[in-house]
Amino acid sequence: MAVGTDSARVDAVDKVTGLALYPADAVPKDALHAVVVFTNQPHARLVSMDLSKTVASPGVVTVVTAADVPVNEYGLTLFDQPVFIGLDDTGRSSVPCDVSRWEADHLVVVVAESLSEARRASALIDTEWEPLPMASDVASAKADEILVHPGSSTNTYHTLQIRKGDAVLGMEAADVIIEGTYELPHQEHAYLQVEAATAWIDEQDRVTVETSGQWVHEDREQIAHALAVDEEEVRVRYAAIGGAFGGKEDMSLQIVMAVTARKLGALGINRSVHCGWSREESIVGHHKRHRATVTARLGATSEGFITAVEADVWLDAGAYNYTSNKVLGNLHLSVAGAYNVPNARIDSRAIYTHSVPGGAFRGFGGPQGAFVAESQMNKLASKLGMDPMELRQRNALTDLSDGITQSGLPEGVGVTRVIDACVERVPPSEELPEYPPFSPIASLPAKAEQLRQGRGYAVGMKNVGFSFGFPEACEADVVFHGDADEERPNRVELFHSAAEVGQGVHTALTQMVAYAVGLDFESVDGFFSDTSTGGDSGSASASRLTFMAGNSVLGAVEEAEKAWADGARPAAGHFRYKPPMTEALDPETGEGQPNFCYGYMAQAVDLTVDVGTGHIRVDRVVSVHDVGKAIHPQMLRGQIEGAIAQAHGYTLSEQLVVENGRIQNPRLSQYLIPGIGDVPARVDCVILEAADPLGPWGARGVSEMPYITYAPAVTAALYDAAGIWINKFPLTPSVVLEHLASAEI
Amino acid sequence: MNAEESYEIRLKVNGRTQHVTAPARRLLSDALRGELGLTGTHVGCEHGVCGCCTVLVDGAPVRSCLTFAVAVQDKDIRTVEGLAAGDGELHPVQEAFKECHGLQCGFCTPGFLMTACALIEQNNDPTEQEITEAIAGNLCRCTGYQNIRAAVRRAAEITRSDKR
Amino acid sequence: MIPASFDYVKASSADEAISLISEHGDEAKLLAGGHSLIPMMKLRLAVPSVLVDIAGVRDLSHVEDRGDHIAIGALAKHRSIETSDLLIAQCPMLAHVASKVGDPQVRHRGTIGGSLAHSDPASDLPAAVLALGGSLIVQGPNGQREIAATDFFTGYFESALAEDEMLTEVKVPKSPGTNWNYQKFNRRAQDWAIVGVAAAQVDGAMQVSLVNMGSTPLRATAVETALASGASAAEAADEAANGTEAPTDLNASPEYRAHLARVLTKRALEASGVE
Fold it and tell me: Closest Cα of chain B to C133: distance in Å?
């Protein structure tokens, strides 16, 4: 099966027959059931906790608390979060554990014979809390009067800056200056499969956790840290993963279930323990896409050449860091867009608040940054009366540009390519086509006089792979099978840890191995996502797996070919792919090479707005991507269409309401993810294949890219339709209507 | 607290009658997954929004998370496990979702398959509008629905050609 | 989300159901499709100790021509109303509104009686029956009585049904033709209405009702009065929010709802042939 052609997914049959087992499906018959009790306190000190009634409740086997965690701290990039809030721990943690800073901080795990017994017993926990003052948003936290982490003197715990040229002189040289303050909202991942895990002590005495996540080795490292054991004493493997989108990159049940299994083992109870969150627990209990406020200025000459960019970014990190410091870096780089900016001053801060933590979510800061950059460019085009894509073409980054970090860009910059292809497909001068009646489902037969049509564009770029000097590598193992006298292997085993979150990576890797070895698809057996069989792949994130895992399996095949040629049967090949090193940015100027590869994209959005109600329907999206090489075109289109649907919800309907650190709408009836009647009526994918010099067969990555440009393209189309700029979203009908009223449309 | 009364519930699932002892509040979704081990029926939102738990009751798509098991005794219940033929040959909707990549993470897929199955069995030549309306009660967070729509169209096509 | 425990009994006739609910008083609830009741039970907003399952009661799923009106059994499902040839010909508005309730899974399970008895101000069918000027037949231990739809909805999730009564039939006047319309505005297709407006010409007069504009489904009296005194569609629609107390929730403010009521009323009236 050649790369560049479509094969059936390797997991398709299991998924259409119901045989695929997700983490809540494969629960052993004799498993114990656990409930994770949240503190339900956005900021309070635990004064006392009495578990005697809980322990005495029928069916209860044990309770697990802070005292059971050897090192009561965790965090993907900073250890700033206790595993459990409690009155006492082992004293080996850097975080004080008696204060709850988030309503979903964990308090106790109650283990019982049945779920209903565990639930009943958890309601009997008797606690006394001393309420503490709240700094629940950036506005209240940045004054530092109330500290979220009192060990530090400020809530503004991570800052980045860019100083390029002279932004003051650049603004003075501008004929036009565009200014705006942008409010970027939270977003909930809303993967349909909520968190669940089963844990046990395996026959080799390892603490084993079966769950769904995005990086088995990272899960294992975090568990081992909290348990203070060697990583080899911990095993993590993934069941089928029902969506992730960044929301399963951080810990949910992994550590607490490992601690629970170990405690049961110590009590001599040789049984598995299972826990599954409810939808409400999932929405309350995991991080969100960050909300942020960005103030930006863009200076340009009357010919449309950018003279300077200034920006101030305030990122609401919530109560714990998660990956906020890294998300901030990405947002920081992307507020300047995909353009030549001779002079820049950008100051970005991540700020702790007593609110839900922000963390990874498809795009990783890119959607927030691009909303600012592209809104500014669209406003500039409008102010100058210029074609918005011509304006972008004049300023587009190329292979010769030094970039916002003054380091040059990885070879093969595709900004002008995607702009050209987008304009060719959707010329800005073209009349808008007539689209079918207003909506296929909602009964809104508005008269034409109340409908306005518009078109908007946005352009962007997104890194592939980890940034800023974070160690980046991916391992693969293959084993060739065949008889000694055969020239070629007849079967290949692939061992890999890449997480199949739905994107199709197991299919793509199988296809790559089959093609590289010259076998058919069915002759490759994949064994995936188990720390006991596969090497460290890194996470399913940053649009990195096609590039990184692809290169890793190519290297492993090459190694196995050598062993095969030397006569080894079976012939094993192991490879660890490392891309060019990236760099942390200079703290004063922001100079450095943050990334080794980018994907490039441009979008055109046509929409219709009902000015009577404020309702927006997106009629068509044309999404242009330079992907280097389409390994599996059908799955590639699936990534684009899926990303756009999620970005559509982010832009138009999804509104997470958080008040005083508490989520107000933790249900799918209240938090509105789009259905088939809501998503764009039509999505046209335009795929360009300018090979990346380092990518496998030239492939880059795509899964985040279509997301990033969508919101600013929609707001530009709304401006085109109705003459209003809206600097925040979601563009709910009432928000749109308020702006229409103030513009007197 | 008084012991909760248990009911002997006869469930006819995928052509086979089975007995479940459970309280009246046992949801059909939980009875299928827990008591009968049919974990292909997924639970996504628990209160009637996402459609992941859709099964067929007397041929009609129904949310099993909003149905008490005791209330559908002796009805003809079909789940995703009952779609393929005994010899493993895939049902046209299964074949089509596989062929058209109408799935990514696969968690919503059984619900879509059951809803699509109900449509196709009543109408093997649906219009685009009929397809959209038929699957409008199922949420997917991965695909953007384009391939799902294509898969339902394809399933109808396979069904029509099978009948010829 | 699991409901509190309850006892389950199945009734095979309306009489049996009524005697069971009489016996258990306010602790008992009737279960038909369950699509309104079960979500509330899961959230423990409803905690009945006895559920009387009436889904198996025969002879209450009819849609019948009764001369000047059509009688619909309380257990008729939304799906059968939506697809009823009789209704499509003689009361097309009701068939249309039934097709706008939720999604196929809901319409295959939900019943018209359940929807009306639940008295949810955000429901579609109560507003349709109100605009049509229909009436409801309820049966209790002492026999039947007929309640005009305008008198049926008495408060937030409250109706004129006594504890020991069961809604058995809904009567709507024949109202063929095209002088009717239903406008439903929601933020997500398939969801509950943020605001809805039903308009129907019955016996020459235009009757208008509102969804989710107060604690009950309600008639837009001010609009009807304006129309009766010769107002245009636009003029009458301006009155749509008068006298209403629109709710506030995460989806919309009362002001936005009032605005929608005016816009949607104008559209509904114009689509119903009012100029």
Answer: 29
Q: What is the pLDDT of residues A307-364, one digit of tens each?
A: 999 999 999 999 999 999 999 999 999 999 999 999 999 999 999 999 999 999 999 9
Q: Which candidate from A443, A447, A732 shows the least CB-CB separation from C182? A: A443
- Decide if A672 and C182 are in contact by the 8 Å CB cutoff: no
Cα Rg of chain A, angstroms: 26
A116 Cα to chain C: minimum distance (Å): 10
CA distance B47 to chain A (A): 8
Which residue among A15, A279, A637 sits closest to B106, beta carbon to beta carbon?
A15
Closest listed residue to residue A407, CA positions, set A494, A330, A316, A468 = A468
Chain A contact for C259 (CB, 8 A cutoff): yes
Collapsing DSSP to helix, strand or coil, C98 comes out as helix
Range of the domain at B61: 6-81
Domain residues for C252? 180-271
Residue C198 has pLDDT above 60, yes or no: yes
Mutation target vs B (from A16, A120, A617; most B CBs, 10 A cutoff): A16
Count of residues in chain A: 745
Q: What is the DSSP string of A458-494?
A: EEEEEE-S--TT----EEEEEEEE--TT-SS-SEEEE
pLDDT bracket for residue A445 (50, 70, 90): low
Is B45 in contact with A279 (Cβ distance < 8 A)?
Answer: yes
pTM of this prediction? 0.97
Rounded to the nearest integer, the mean pLDDT of chain A is 96
Contact A649, A710 (CB under 8 A): no
Q: Is the Cα dihedral A677, A679, A680, A683 positive or negative?
A: negative
The last residue of one of the domains, among C113, C145, C173, is C173
Which domain CATH number covers C78? 3.30.465.10
pLDDT of residue A600: 98
Q: What is the topology classification, in CATH, of domain A32-133+210-269? A: Aldehyde Oxidoreductase; domain 3 (3.90.1170)
At residue A621, what are phi and psi to the nearest 5 degrees? -125, 130
Distance of CA A60 to the CA centre of its chain: 37
Please report whether residue C156 resides in a domain.
yes
Mean pLDDT, chain C, whole residue set: 95
Q: Do B10 and B77 belong to one domain?
A: yes
Query: What chain B residue is nearest to A29 in terms of C-alpha separation?
Result: B34
**Looking at residues A547-561, what average pLDDT do you find?**
98
Assess whether pLDDT exceeds 60 at residue A441.
Answer: no
Q: What is the pLDDT of residue C228?
A: 96
User: What does the pLDDT read at residue A440?
Assistant: 47
pLDDT band at A443 (very low <50, low <70, confident <90, very high): very low
Of the partner residues B46, B48, B145, the one whose CB lies closest to the CB of residue A645: B145
> What's the pLDDT at B1?
45
pLDDT in tens, A588-604: 999 999 999 999 999 99
Residue among C34, C43, C51 whose CB faces B66 most closely? C34
Please tell me whether residues B40 and B103 are part of one structural domain.
Answer: no
Relative orientation angle of helices A388-395 and A415-425, to the nearest 10 degrees:
160
Contact between A641 and A625 (Cβ < 8 Å): no
CATH of the domain spanning A12-17+467-577, picked from 3.40.47.10, 3.40.720.10, 3.40.120.10, 3.30.365.10? 3.30.365.10
Is A70 in contact with A92 (CB distance < 8 Å)? yes
